[in-house]
Amino acid sequence: DAVVHWFKMDLRITDNRALWEASEKAREAGVPLICIYIVSPQDFEAHLTSPARVDFMIRTLHVIKKDLAALDIPLYVEEVEKRKEIPNRIIDFMEEWGASHLFANMEYEVDELRREAKMVRLCTARGFSMDVFHDTCVVPPGALHTGSGKQYAVYTPWYRAWVAHVHKNSELLNAFEPPSRNPPDARDKVATLFDCDIPDVPENKKLPDEDAKRLHSLWPAGEHEAMDRVEKFCEERIGQYTERRNIPAYAGTASISVHLAAGTLSARAAIRTARARNKTKKLDAGIQGIQSWISEVAWRDFYKHVLVNWPYIWYAISYSACPHNSISVNTLLPFKPEYSNIEWSYNASHFVAWCEGRTGFPIVDAAMRQIRSMGYMHNRCRMIVASFLAKDLLIDWRMGERFFMEHLIDGDFASNNGGWGFSSSVGVDPQPYFRIFNPLLQSEKFDPDGDYIRKWVPELAEIKGKAIHDPYGRGAAVQAKKAGYPKPIVDHKESRDRALSAYKAGIGRD
Ligand code: FAD
């Protein structure tokens, strides 16, 4: 007999609930623990997983394989082309190794939940057991509801309930130990699995060498790196988080989203590490920077709860898999159904200018070049470019959502959908539709010296003073033109009026 842990987006061995439970089961039964991870190119395609993210996951698997091998536990990784075949492949694997217990952490996306349900059915039919655990959120979805028993659709009261729930159930923040070592005889039974190699990144997701090199140095993989990052941030910068989190030129945030998305860091560990620096165990008291950082980490839980409560938001991305200018709007569902009727523009040249960072709005272009280069974009800039796409260009927000998933190394369906819904005003607890960011004011406020723009838009690097925010409108036109920087593709005031009319007409308001 043997116990199998199925790794998914929980790519760490410390503080991994299902892995720990699997290890306990194996220890009690005196049988080996085996770990498996399935790489499915078709799954990556269906979920728009970016090459940067796939590459990060494969690099992480190497770290896990090594760490598990030190505990005499094998990690077996196999490529299965068709995603529908994954459950059957896992069952076959269990049969090959005489395993009858499967453990996994739950993923809340609709496809994944369906797959998990299928897995449970298959296990039951074979007389195997399958145990699935809540692990990715600090507070499991379904645990919080309003006084009248409804789901929260507004962040602030949800957050109050989230904090109260964690205070009341403090064990939610406890860490799970790494798995116990396989005893020597158990190790011998599964010895051949140690020799299996981890497959390479699938062809459809391979990064060009130059990009791979850059991303490897920017985003080292694995849980040790994740803990180092969060500890360093909490030691050095969390105290100033409130004042500095909105300045993209400054490293004021933790840069751990890639780790939370891949599961190389647990949300529990992030919060524990921050709490340990505070003067109090309360999450909503003490040092301001710590409080506000914890409330940001909680946004991640919030959007996962939203996905579980209203899974129809997922259909948005599943049906948007069509060419940029032929999205079938009727099948796409924003959180707010009344926002389904907005007449979006599908102006291909505007969309391409946005994707390529050539809109003539320096802050927007800097941000779009950052995502293309780093697989990451600062949160303030994510809001600026999302608002610009949906409101200034009036382009269907789902095209932006998709572009982000295809490029982000930290792409996470729930947070991305939530962020786009917020910025385009069609989502849960959104920015009101009439609040339209002025890119110039955002630029002056959050990149006052233009350092972020100069870093990412080298054509403008020599432009001095405030002209950096709007070279054509502020006396640096000759210089900008000479450097090949484009003129603004829209006039903000006109596009603002156009967006207000389109939103009002779409939602049937005067
Ligand atoms: P920090 O400020 O240090 O925050 C710590 C952690 O808290 C983050 O790593 C993240 O896990 C969580 N967090 C912070 N802000 C948010 C937020 N607004 N929503 C959800 N979680 C948050 N985040 C993703 O992880 N994946 C995405 O695909 C994603 N897409 C986004 C799209 C848009 C349009 C917007 C506006 C936001 C999106 N975010 C996404 C949220 C946020 O921008 C990133 O989590 C953040 O920039 C990551 O940087 P950090 O780790 O330095 O964050």
Automatic annotation (TrEMBL):
Cofactor(s) annotated in UniProt: FAD; (6R)-5,10-methylene-5,6,7,8-tetrahydrofolate
* Coiled coil start-end: none
Q: Which residues form the Photolyase/cryptochrome alpha/beta domain?
A: 1-138
Q: Where is this site: Electron transfer via tryptophanyl radical?
A: 344, 397, 420
Q: Where does FAD bind?
A: 241, 253-257, 293, 296-303, 410-412
Gene Ontology molecular function, alphabetical: deoxyribodipyrimidine photo-lyase activity; DNA binding; FAD binding
Keywords linked to the UniProt accession = Chromophore, FAD, Flavoprotein
The entry's cellular-component GO terms read:
cytoplasm; nucleus
Q: Does the keyword Flavoprotein apply?
A: yes
GO BP: circadian regulation of gene expression; entrainment of circadian clock by photoperiod; nucleobase-containing compound metabolic process; response to stress
Q: Which family does it belong to?
A: Belongs to the DNA photolyase class-1 family.
Q: What is this protein called?
A: Photolyase/cryptochrome alpha/beta domain-containing protein
Q: Which organism is it from?
A: Xylaria bambusicola
In terms of the whole protein, what range is present?
109 to 618 of 620
